[in-house]
Design goal:
By secondary structure, the chain is an all-alpha fold. It has a single domain, classed as Rossmann fold, CATH 3.40.50. 47% of the residues lie in helices and 0% in strands. Helix 2 (29-42) runs parallel beside helix 3 (56-68).
């Protein structure tokens, strides 16, 4: 079946299979951000959040949730820092 796409000139298939075996729909990034904000606001101490460094949308959601909850973010990891710097240069990081 994939060969048929190649025969039509398609050069590559790029897809994300994260949670592909999980039934139902994934929540929107807005819903994830709202949930993060609620958790961060209610936490009495520090909050640790992990994500793929390539998921700029999630990084933005985490940063906004922390900001809205009156918290600061500490970024650990060279790839994460590099992605955040590039996202900032391209205007994806607000504030």
């Amino acid at each position: 079946r994939f060969r048929a796409y190649g025969d039509k000139g398609v050069l590559a298939l790029v897809c994300d299979s994260t949670n592909a075996l999980r039934e139902g729909e994934s929540p929107s990034e807005v819903a994830v951000g709202e949930g993060l904000k609620g958790v961060i606001e209610k936490a009495k101490g520090r909050v640790a959040v992990t994500t793929f460094s390539s998921n700029v949308g999630r990084i933005v959601s985490i940063a906004r949730a922390a900001r809205d909850a009156g918290r600061q973010c500490l970024v650990l990891g060279r790839s994460l820092k590099r992605v955040i710097d590039v996202a900032g240069e391209l205007g994806y990081m607000d504030g």
